[in-house]
Amino acid sequence: MEIGCVYSIEDYGTIGRPLPSPTHIPFGIATIATVLKAGGHDPAMFVLCPDSRIGQVLDDYIARRRPKLFCLTAVSSQFAFIEEVARHIKACDETIFVVLGGHHASLAPEGAIASPHIDAICINEGDRAVIELAAAIESGAAVGGIANLWIKDRATGTIEKNPTLPFLQDLDTLPYIDRSMWDRWILDREDGVSILVGRGCPYKCTYCSNHAMNRLAEGKFVRYRSPENMIGEIDHVRQQYPNTRHIYLEVETITANLKKTFALFEALADYNGRLATPIAFSMNQAFHSNFMKNTEKMEEFFELCGKANVVRLNVGLESGSEEIRKDVLRRPNYSNEEFAAFCAIAKSHGIDIVVYVLMNLPGETPEHFRETVDLVKKIQPRNVFLSIFHPYIGTDLHALAASRGLIPSGTTKGRFERRSSVMRTPEFPSYRVKFEYILFWWRVYRGVWPLSRILYYMAKHNIFAYRRLGRLWNRFTARLVPRPGF
């Protein structure tokens, strides 16, 4: 059966190839398309952006291939655009069944299913539900009784709210991502690849959707693939992208289970030992003070990093204020001194550190943010993922911000998510947030980075507060300016 799959992206360089590299392939909808293909269906992938001509992209496909099902995905900030995509699909052929998955459907289901252009939403993981849905549509059977789906009756408008399945425990049963479906949408196919390590996070950070997703089903939320399964996919990827030299291991935190981490690193080291040019790896780590206290395990971790050719760790600081981390973000426990010491040890082992930072948090003041600036300046990471806090629906921090009246309506219109201020707080007014957001690079890297690089980042973070300017910047720099490293 012909099936259309749509992913949307807001931050892009070109309309025709909006994904910068294979590392930007999203695992959610990519897995859905892959399991459908493995099940004997013929999925077609479409990557759309706000400047895409939806009809130009989809009309010919719908007319020629006559798909019976479209699978869409959206986070909350992309829902309005994806709803417009659904409207267009229905205008072309109202008999096409449209299902929406992703975080918005899972965390704001009542609003999502209320859309007149959406027939069903998927709550929780869709790997198993979509196969059952496709089988029912292909056979002409009535669609109903499918776990993880809320299904709308087109005639009456009533909603069948089916229960959720337990979280899928054996991730090795999933097929390797079929990246060939994405190639036509990627600008630079040689710029690294991402491979999924596992699903779920053990921490309960208030700004992240993981704690909310954890409540959706029974069973163990934090799960990992086996090292053997991952090595198999790495080998598969190298056949498709033979010039691959860097792989990003996608995981919420690599050190949640050190036994599994060490087994994976041993397997990566063994695999690299068979290659003429070893692959470099990078990944996320959620730092915790317990990691620093267990010096034996920490030393083993860094020793195995070296053997596996781990060259970069992305580490979440989020705030340099211990008060904000504890009382607002519910981050894992660590002191600023411990965090700085960990970064110094990592760098001493030849591992680059990239730090995640959030600003404009509920209760945060300019003085709190100055603590962040001072700590990052002390650490001198290779780079920083600096984001202005965006209150995602369904998270605890969204509920807190909304209860305090900090999210005025219309504040997201015309602005990039996480690059402009959504909240309005008297302690940290929006003009001051923007000023600190731009000046951050000067405060942290003055005298360390070349002045030209500092000015580049300051200009970029000023421009990217606005969607259209940001898109023009991306188009101009897509091929002219090298991205700041894997």
Radius of gyration, in angstroms, nearest whole number: 23 Å
Mean pLDDT: 92
| Percentage of residues in strands | 15-25%
CATH architecture of the largest domain: Alpha-Beta Horseshoe
Q: Structural class from helices and strands?
A: alpha/beta
CATH homologous superfamily annotation of the largest domain: tm_1862 like domain
- The tally of helices reads 18
In words, what does this structure look like?
Helix 2 (54-65) crosses helix 3 (79-92) and helix 9 (258-272) runs parallel beside helix 11. 41% of the residues are buried. Strand 6 (149-152) and strand 7 (159-161) form a beta hairpin. The two termini are 38 Å apart. With 486 residues, the protein is an alpha/beta fold. It folds into two domains: 2-161, Rossmann fold (3-Layer(aba) Sandwich), CATH 3.40.50.280; 190-477, pyruvate-formate lyase- activating enzyme, CATH 3.80.30.20. Mean pLDDT is 92; it is low at 481-486. It has helices spanning 27-38, 54-65, 79-92, 103-107, 109-113, 129-139, 210-213, 227-240, 258-272, 289-293, 295-308, 322-329, 336-348, 366-379, 396-403, 430-445, 451-463, 467-477; strands at residues 2-8, 42-48, 69-73, 97-101, 120-122, 149-152, 159-161, 193-196, 198-199, 223-224, 246-250, 280-285, 310-318, 352-359, 383-388.
